[in-house]
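Standup, Tuesday
Yesterday: got the pipeline producing structure tokens again.
Today: sanity-check two examples.
Blockers: none.

Example 1:
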Amino acid sequence: MRPLLQAVAVVAALASSAGAQELDRSPLARADAQVVVGWQNLREQQPAGTLGPQNNWLNSIVHGAVGAGWYWTDHLKTAIDFGGGTSGRQYRYSQVIAGGTTTYSESLAHVRETNLGISQQYQFFRNEWFHPHVGAGIDIARKHTTEEYFGANVVDSVTHAPRALIGPHTESESRTLVRPFGELGFKAYMTTRAFFTSDARIRFQGGIDEVRFRFGFGVDF
């Protein structure tokens, strides 16, 4: 009888240990929140007919965002973030033909986006101070473009005085765009809950459409 009781006790202990291990596999954090700032690079295709060297990238954009995530496991997280950037500027130079007269026009486009990103991430390692991750998702952008036209003048063939062919004016346009993106980043813990974070995000639409680098701080819940 005694050996039987000992065997039962061992089995019970093993079952209890297995159950405890299963409980330990629950996510160490259920959610997190973070605030980030960074550098946004947007591709803005210049209109057909633009002359001269064409730089289709807007680089001097500061971007900021707040975000939150929900951990389904220690490795799988659904994340959402909302933010926006400063305006990027693009100079444009084009030929204008009106009434048989040819001249040239200059303009300055200001492009700014507000972004909502939803992604699924896979986080590597468990209960370490450093956790890299990869992710993919959808970026919903509200894009606002304002273009300032400086006007175009020609010289009157009779009076030899400048005459405005096109007067200075401004045109604006707003659009909502939905595009996929990929992400690579990491979390580096400073305490058991507070962390430093950084990531690089690449968005696609007919090729690479945006490159965004971000860094900031967050906390687990």
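Example 2:
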Amino acid sequence: MENNIEKGPEGFLTKEEVLKVLSRWVSLEADAETEPAKIRRELSDEQGLYLLELEEEGEQPGETVEHMYMRKGEHGKNATGKTIISVTSYKDGMPTGGYTLATFDEASRIWTKTY
């Protein structure tokens, strides 16, 4: 899946741009059947947003799913060679699986679904 994103300030994605991409896979608004995903953590540095975590309820009681955006680079104890969106599943607070959902190509400004 590809998506051109308008170039944000200094080429970095804004929170709104990241939420727009995440909304393909995560419900950001409540409906009659599901609660919206909630922003659990949001971190920025002098260049802007580098981490955004959204959490939603899983299909079974005690299950949650985390969608995480991380900008390429070193951010404290965390580092990544690519700008990514990853997904991690939890059962009663313990991780049960995860994968990289999409990667962002800075040169073309295109997200590519990898999973």
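Quick observation on example 2: Residues 15-22 form the longest helix (8 residues). The beta strands are 38-45, 48-57, 63-70, 73-75, 78-80, 83-91, 94-105, 110-113.
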